[in-house]
């Protein structure tokens, strides 16, 4: 009896420790589950602390929560401990752990997730659930219809529409909090440009039109592109106020607010492009060939990940540092792309960003240090021999 008691205490302590780092996931109980789930869309994990599958899913679930749990978002990522709040789990017909269910706003029954428990599959499932029954901007006709000057484009009409003329296009995902914040500003911009014949303001839902967004190399949401005669000419990276966006459109149209770039500005743009091109963008199809016979420092990331976004400029600078060194490659892998899904799973990527170092095609180390340019640079140099000054 004493041994069983001690074992039980050990299990409880271990399970408490395994979940203590869940700072973004919302924990619901019998007392608040029904009330909270009725307020917005929810994706809920029903789990038991001792469950091995639950423990393995935990970091991915927390990553999903970090991505989507925003105060003004339309979805919440939550969990319920069935060993404590078994009444809720019984009502939800939970018979195994973990059980993952998506609850649409106003629906208390939920839809079970039955796919593989990796981040790309989970986000795809969320996108599908949010699209179903959405009578808003996801219902499209073959010809784009302007609503106060704003066009909703799809695979049926995109190429024909942007093939001629000038277009400012927002590529977005419905669940993206930043996209939701931008939406009224983008509508206001479209309305203010409604009677301009030489430009259109448009938007594309990337969860429904993945091929278009991949073709235009959309890596994060929202992405704002200036397109002329079907070709991407520029990516807007300024402030997202109505005034800044309208000034940008005027500049691109050659109206007020336009100005020729100075020689210094042109040089800076060229330098930045060289920096960005120094990082190799491999896929599941090119990965093995891309890292064989070299030392490869590989960043596995997701475009929506805040930590990944903060690391991106440093990673680009790191690529530039090794640009002239044939035996070193600085690489990035977008794990949200379907072509990379199996690769990221096989490489045991459990969170973003994950950084591995490979030599001659074999993984030899995971980088866990600080993400400064100096420390990243020194780590690579240590494995290829010698140290250089930055």
Give, in order, the helices and strands: HEHEHEHEEHEEHEHEHEEHHEHEHEHEEH
| Beta-strand percentage range | 15-25%
Helix percent reads 25-40%
How far apart the termini lie comes to 63 Å
Summarize the structure.
The protein is an alpha/beta fold and 390 residues long.
Search tags:
Thioredoxin domain-containing protein, single chain, 16 strands, disordered N terminus, 5-stranded mixed beta sheet, repeat, alpha/beta, 21% strand, PDI, 6-stranded mixed beta sheet, PDI_thioredoxin-like_dom, 390 residues, signal, flat
Describe the protein in words.
- This protein is an alpha/beta fold.
- It contains 14 helices and 16 strands.
- The strands form three sheets. It has a six-stranded mixed β-sheet with strand order 6-7-9-8-10-11. It has a five-stranded mixed β-sheet with strand order 1-3-2-4-5. A five-stranded mixed β-sheet has the order 12-14-13-15-16, with helices on one face.
- Strand 13 (295-301), helix 12 and strand 14 (328-334) form a beta-alpha-beta unit.
- It is flat and about 65 Å long.
């Amino acid at each position: 009896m004493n041994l069983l008691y001690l074992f039980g205490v050990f299990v409880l302590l271990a399970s408490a420790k395994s979940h203590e780092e869940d700072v973004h996931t919302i924990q619901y109980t019998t007392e608040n589950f029904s009330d909270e789930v009725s307020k917005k869309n929810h994706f809920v994990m029903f789990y038991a602390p001792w469950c091995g599958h639950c423990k393995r899913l935990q970091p991915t679930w927390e990553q999903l929560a970090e991505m989507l749990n925003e105060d003004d978002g339309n979805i919440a990522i939550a969990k319920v401990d069935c060993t404590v709040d078994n009444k809720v789990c019984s009502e939800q017909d939970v018979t195994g752990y973990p059980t993952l269910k998506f609850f649409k706003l106003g629906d208390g029954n939920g839809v079970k997730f039955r796919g593989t428990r990796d981040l790309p599959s989970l986000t795809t499932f969320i996108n599908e659930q949010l699209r179903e029954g959405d009578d808003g901007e996801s219902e499209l006709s073959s010809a784009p219809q302007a609503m106060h000057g704003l066009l909703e484009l799809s695979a049926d009409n995109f190429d024909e529409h942007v093939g001629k003329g000038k277009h400012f296009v927002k590529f977005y995902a419905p669940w993206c909090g930043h996209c939701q914040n931008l939406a009224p500003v983008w509508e206001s911009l479209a309305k203010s440009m409604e009677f301009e014949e030489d430009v259109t303001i448009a938007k594309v839902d990337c969860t429904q039109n993945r091929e278009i967004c991949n073709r235009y190399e959309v890596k994060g949401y929202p992405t704002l592109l200036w397109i002329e005669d079907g070709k991407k000419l520029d990516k807007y990276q300024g402030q997202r106020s109505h005034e800044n966006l309208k000034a940008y459109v005027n500049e691109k149209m050659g109206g007020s607010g336009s100005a020729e770039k100075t020689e210094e500005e042109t040089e800076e743009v060229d330098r930045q492009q060289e920096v960005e091109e120094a990082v190799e963008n491999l896929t599941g199809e090119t990965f093995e060939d891309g890292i064989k016979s070299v030392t490869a420092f590989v960043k596995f990331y997701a475009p929506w990940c805040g930590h990944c976004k903060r690391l991106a400029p440093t990673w680009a600078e790191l690529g530039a540092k090794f640009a002239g060194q044939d035996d070193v490659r600085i690489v990035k892998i977008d794990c949200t792309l379907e072509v990379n899904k199996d690769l990221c799973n096989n490489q045991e990527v459990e969170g973003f960003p994950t950084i591995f170092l490979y030599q001659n095609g074999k993984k030899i180390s995971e980088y866990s240090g600080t993400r400064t340019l100096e420390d990243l640079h020194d780590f690579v140099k240590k494995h290829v021999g010698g140290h250089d000054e930055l």
